Amino acid sequence: MCHVIVTCRSMLWTLLSIVVAFAELIAFMSADWLIGKAKPSSSEEVDSRTGGPQEPYHPTLGIYGRCTRISHMQFSRRDTLCGPYAENFSEIASGFWQATAIFLAMGIMILCTVAFVSVFTMCVQSIMKKSIFNVCGLLQGIAGLFLILGLILYPAGWGCQKAISYCGPYASAYKLGDCSLGWAFYTAIGGTVLTFICAVFSAQAEIATSSDKVQEEIEEGKNLICLL
Fold first, then answer.
1. Whose C-alpha in 47, 69, 119, 185 is 20 to 30 A from the C-alpha of 22?
2. How many distinct structural domains can be found in the chain?
3. Is the dihedral of CA 185, 186, 189, 190 positive or negative?
4. What angle do CA 50, 37, 46 make, to 5 degrees?
5. Which Gene3D superfamilies does the record cross-reference, listed alphabetically (predicted)?
6. pLDDT grade for 74, boundaries at 50, 70 and 90
7. Which residues, in sequence order, are CB contacts of 2 under 8 Å at separation 6+?
8. Each residue's pLDDT tens digit, 108-156
9. Interacting residues of 133 by C-beta distance below 8 A, sequence separation 6+
10. The predicted structure's pLDDT at residue 227
11. Predicted model pTM
């Protein structure tokens, strides 16, 4: 018989698992990993809102995508254009970024799988006598290691020609040059930290759903068990 078991710790672990998976996925797909040096605007370009000249803008560069601004002469203003600069995997600007993409993708795939499975832990707490929480926690730990490897390799690609075109001639491996780090990089780091927190917290979710209070509720014949 299926018993729906909901505790504060198991629900918190489930929500964190989902948040971490989405955070890493959004960061990976974003072009805001590097914020390039300011590009001056032409004196002929006018801001449609203020009527004054356009202010300098900062193009952004991601692992496989970029955001820049293009002129639309009929409107005399600039629009932001975002999209992949690499049409296939081999066109990613650096071998280090290719490795970063592989490790991050593997970690994100694992996190998305765990996030999907975590929703069903309210009904199913074990498979083949193995706790789902413990298995998911182990997978999250492995995903965290993949994410760390990807984030360590990413700065090694700052010396590629693509990064230099955004960050200036002084950019090199682990040196930003004229660039700064964007929100996507910090989101990926925060998601990695939360991944390990989830891995540790999965043990608490397992303890909460297998506690004596839960067993007492099951023996009383309850199918829906909610505990703080």
1. 69
2. 1
3. negative
4. 20
5. 1.20.140.150
6. very low
7. 123, 124, 223
8. 999 999 999 988 887 777 777 788 888 999 999 999 999 999 999 999 9
9. 10, 13, 121, 125, 202, 203, 205, 206, 209
10. 59
11. 0.84
- CATH at residue 147: 1.20.140.150
Nearest to 120 by CA among 45, 10, 203, 9: 10
Q: Are 184 and 33 in contact (CB under 8 A)?
A: yes
CB 114, CB 141: distance < 8 Å? no
Residue 29's domain comprises 4-33+92-225
Cα–Cα distance measured from residue 202 to residue 13, given in angstroms and rounded to the nearest whole number: 6
Answer whether residue 139 is part of any domain.
Answer: yes
Is 21 contained in some domain?
yes
Q: What is the pLDDT of residues 32-72, one digit of tens each?
A: 999 988 776 554 444 545 544 556 678 899 999 998 876 55
